[in-house]
Write a structure and sequence with these properties.
Helices cover about 45% and strands about 10% of the residues. It is an alpha/beta fold and about 290 residues long. It is globular, with a radius of gyration of 18 Å.
Length: about 290
C-alpha cells in the first residue's frame, strides 16, 4: 500500500518474509498461541502487582510481539515512547527468554529493575527511560540520524500512543526526520482513542492523525493493530527517502470487562476479573 505522497519515490526492496507465522497456517497458529500466552502472562503481571494501565498494554501487545519476534534484527533499536505500556514490553521480552518469571515477579516492587515505566539500560533492549510522553520520536529520530554517520545497517522503531501526538515535540521530531529523509525510522502509533482524561476526540482530536502526518511527507500506513499478519506487512513495507509511520487501529483493554472504557487506562484487575479473563484465554478465547 502506497499513499499518493509516497507514489513518486522508489520503493525499497521488500524485506525477506522470514516470519515463522508467515510461512504456513500451522506456523501462524503457533504464533497466535504465543501471543495468547503473552496476554495471559501480561494479565498475571498486572494483577499480581495490582497495577493499572492494563488497557493500553493490551492494545499494543500484538504489535510488540510481531516487532520483536519477526521484524527486528539484533542491530536494530526500539523506543517505547508510551512508557506506561512497559508491562507489554516486559511480557514480550519474557516471551523471547530475555526476562524470566522471577524478573517479572518484581514488576513495580521496591528495588526492581522493571518499574511501571522503563527505567533504561538495566532492561534488555531498553536504551532510555520513557513515560514522560512525547519524547520517544525525538530519541528515535536522533538514533536514526546517528546511524547514518556510523554507517551501520540499523533500523529504529518507536511505539507511541495517539494522545502523545497532541504534543508539539512529536511534530518537531517528525519534521526533523522527514527533512533528513530518515528512511531507517519507523514510528508506530497505537490509536486506541482513549487517554488519561477521556477520549482523544473530546480532548484534542486525533481522528485525522493519518492525513496530517501524511501531509508532512511521511510514508503512512493504517492497519488493524490486533491482526499480526497486517502488522507484519506494514512494518515490512518501506519507501526510500521517507520516514515510515504505521497507525494501528486498536481497542483499549480489548477482551476485558473494561474494554474501550476510561477505566482500562487506570484500574487494575480484581481477583474475579483476572480469573475470568485468564480462563477465557485458556479456553481458546482472544483478548
Amino acid at each position: 500500500m502506497i499513499n499518493e505522497k509516497a507514489s513518486h519515490y522508489t520503493r525499497l526492496k521488500r524485506l525477506p518474509l522470514g516470519s515463522p507465522f508467515w510461512v504456513c497456517r500451522e506456523a501462524m497458529n503457533e504464533f497466535h498461541k504465543k501471543i495468547a500466552q503473552a496476554k495471559q502472562r501480561l494479565l498475571k503481571l498486572h494483577h499480581d502487582a495490582n497495577s493499572g494501565h492494563l488497557g493500553g498494554n493490551i492494545s499494543c501487545l500484538e504489535a510488540l510481539m510481531v516487532l520483536h519476534h519477526n521484524i527486528m534484527k539484533p542491530e536494530d533499536r526500539f523506543i517505547l515512547s508510551k512508557g506506561h505500556a512497559a508491562g507489554a514490553l516486559y511480557t514480550t521480552l519474557w516471551s523471547l527468554g530475555k526476562l524470566s518469571d522471577a524478573d517479572l515477579q518484581t514488576f513495580t516492587r521496591d528495588d526492581t529493575t522493571l518499574p511501571g515505566h522503563p527505567s533504561g539500560s538495566s532492561i534488555p533492549g531498553v536504551m532510555f527511560p520513557t513515560g514522560s510522553l512525547g519524547h520517544g520520536p525525538s530519541l528515535a529520530a536522533g538514533l536514526a540520524m546517528a546511524t547514518r554517520y556510523t554507517h551501520k545497517p540499523r533500523h529504529v522503531y518507536c511505539l507511541c500512543s495517539d494522545g502523545e501526538w497532541q504534543e508539539g515535540s512529536c511534530w518537531e521530531a517528525l519534521t526533523f526526520a522527514i527533512h533528513h529523509k530518515l528512511d531507517n525510522l519507523t514510528i508506530i502509533i497505537d490509536q486506541n482513542g482513549l487517554q488519561g482524561y477521556g477520549r482523544t476526540k473530546d480532548i484534542i482530536s486525533c481522528e485525522d492523525l493519518g492525513p496530517r502526518i501524511s501531509s508532512f511527507g511521511a510514508y503512512l500506513q493504517r492497519v488493524d493493530g490486533h491482526a499480526p499478519v497486517a502488522i507484519k506487512q506494514a512494518l515490512d513495507e518501506r519507501c526510500a527517502g521517507q520516514v515510515s509511520v504505521v497507525i494501528l487501529e486498536t481497542t483499549k483493554g480489548r477482551g476485558t470487562y473494561f474494554e474501550d472504557t476510561l477505566a482500562s487506562h487506570y484500574l487494575p484487575l480484581d481477583d474475579d476479573q483476572f480469573q475470568a479473563a485468564y480462563k477465557a484465554l485458556e479456553q481458546g478465547g482472544s483478548l
